[in-house]
Amino acid sequence: MGIAVATARLFDLIFILLFVSVLLTWFPNINWNNEPFRSLRAFSEIFFAPFRKLIPPIGMIDISPIVAFFVLSLIRNILIRLLVSLGF
């Protein structure tokens, strides 16, 4: 397995974990202080927190995850293309 494929799979895993984290916010009865939710939230905040600082919520809706997904997708595509062009 090439480095480009492994990197693509890693980004896929990150996207899945972030998506699950976003979906779980729709369920108010989840206790985010219990595992595995605490670890999932800590992981997702690494990606969402910088965008939350830049983009205020619109009413009650936080659009920072949408921007985070877009930026991560852009980074993924650039990185994969760079690795493929370098022969990895």
Question: Can you describe what's shown?
Answer:
This protein is 70% helix and 0% strand. It has 88 residues and is an all-alpha fold. The model has no long low-confidence stretch (mean pLDDT 93).
Low-confidence stretches: none
Strand content: under 5%
Largest sheet: none
Helix/strand-derived category reads mainly alpha
Rounded to the nearest angstrom, the radius of gyration is 15 Å
SSE ordering:
HHH
**Helix content range:** over 70%
Q: How many domains make up the 3D coordinates?
A: 1
Helical run tally = 3
* Distance between the ends: 10 Å
Mean pLDDT: 93
Note the overall shape: globular
**Total strand segments:** 0
Keywords:
globular; mainly alpha; 3 helices
List the helices and strands and how they pair.
Blueprint: H1 3-24, H2 37-54, H3 64-85
Helix pairs in contact: 1-3, 2-3
Short description:
This protein has helices spanning 3-24, 37-54, 64-85.
